Amino acid sequence: MANVKSAKKRISVSRNRAERNKAIKSEVKTYLKKVDAAIASGDKQAAAQAFKDAEIKLTKAASKGVFHKNTVSRKIGRLAKAVDAMA
Questions:
Q1: Residue 62 in contact with residue 68, Cβ under 8 Å?
Q2: pLDDT at position 2, please?
Q3: In the prediction, which pLDDT does 87 show?
């Protein structure tokens, strides 16, 4: 266990950030699942709306440093391609 005040603070801060990152990652995964479900059901309008919501969440996660910007860009591109490919 840390004895120095600054080390104790770093432990606290890192724990808080890890919890925040975990919550954001979980939320993003939920939105990605919603897009996949809409694509699987064949509802293009629902898929487009779910994609728009997921894109916003992904972009915000990247701006907070939870995901790398290239990772977010790749995920958004693949989702957009899948939604556009729907009949």
A1: yes
A2: 87
A3: 66
Under 8 Å CB-to-CB from 24, ≥6 apart: which residues?
Answer: 61, 64, 66
From residue 73, how far is each of 2, 17, 78, 81 by CA, in Å? Answer: 39, 23, 9, 12
Between CA 43 and CA 17 the distance in angstroms is 37
CA distance 29 to 23: 10
Residues of the chain scoring pLDDT < 50: none
Identify the DSSP state of 65: T
Residue ranges of the alpha helices (H) in 1-87? 5-41, 44-63, 69-84
